[in-house]
């Protein structure tokens, strides 16, 4: 007698600075994980900080169009002017400029619905964009 190929669990991954994601899979061969790793899709992670978690996601999900947002890479200045007075932590990532140039790192306040909507409409929901499949909110 063969056992059922279906299992009622999800693959749990711990990546970055304490992020935990659960990806359900439908059989013991982890079909959905393989599909996600090798298909085109959009991935949105709120909070970049120094980018180590983001780097991990990009490595683990090589075909994903990974996006992140970070408030600390706003221009330096007072918060009441929409700026960030405590330094740019994101710039410590060695690929910081690359991510900005690729339009994958978006500098702004993720608590601002206008900013979120602008990034979504202009960068992620383009006519040629892959579907959004994963969103992780690691913002504090």
Number of strands: 6
Shape: globular
SSE sequence, one letter per element: EEHEHEHEHE
The CA-CA distance between the termini, in Å, is: 50 Å
Tell me the major beta sheet.
4 strands, parallel
Q: Radius of gyration, Cα only, in angstroms?
A: 17 Å
Structural class label: alpha/beta
> Strand share of the residues?
15-25%
Number of helices: 4
Which regions are unreliable across 5 or more consecutive residues at pLDDT < 50?
1-16
Q: What is the overall pLDDT average?
A: 80
Which percent bin holds the helix content? 25-40%
Strand order of the largest sheet: 5-4-3-6
Describe this structure in words.
This protein is of the alpha/beta class and 140 residues long. The chain is 25% helix and 24% strand. The strands form two sheets. The protein has a four-stranded parallel beta sheet with strand order 5-4-3-6. It is globular, with a radius of gyration of 17 Å.
SSE topology:
Layout: E1 10-15, E2 19-24, H1 31-38, E3 41-46, H2 52-60, E4 64-70, H3 96-101, E5 105-107, H4 113-124, E6 132-137
Parallel strand pairs: 3-4, 3-6, 4-5
Antiparallel strand pairs: 1-2
Keyphrases for this structure?
140 residues; alpha/beta; 4-stranded parallel beta sheet; two-stranded antiparallel sheet; disordered N terminus
Outline:
The chain has 140 residues and is of the alpha/beta class. It is built from four helices and six strands.
């Amino acid at each position: 007698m063969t056992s059922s190929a279906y299992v009622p669990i999800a693959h749990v991954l711990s990546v970055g600075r304490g992020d935990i994601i659960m990806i359900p899979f439908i059989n013991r061969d982890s079909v959905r994980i393989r599909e996600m790793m090798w298909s085109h899709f959009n991935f949105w992670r709120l909070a970049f900080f120094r980018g180590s978690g983001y780097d991990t996601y990009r490595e683990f999900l090589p075909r994903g169009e990974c996006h992140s947002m970070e408030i600390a890479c706003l221009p330096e200045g007072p918060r009441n002017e929409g700026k960030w007075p405590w330094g740019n932590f994101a710039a410590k990532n060695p690929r910081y400029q690359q991510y900005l140039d690729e339009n994958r790192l978006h500098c702004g306040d993720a608590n601002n619905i206008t900013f979120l909507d602008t990034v979504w409409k202009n960068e992620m929901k383009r006519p040629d964009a892959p579907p959004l499949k994963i969103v992780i909110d690691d913002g504090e």
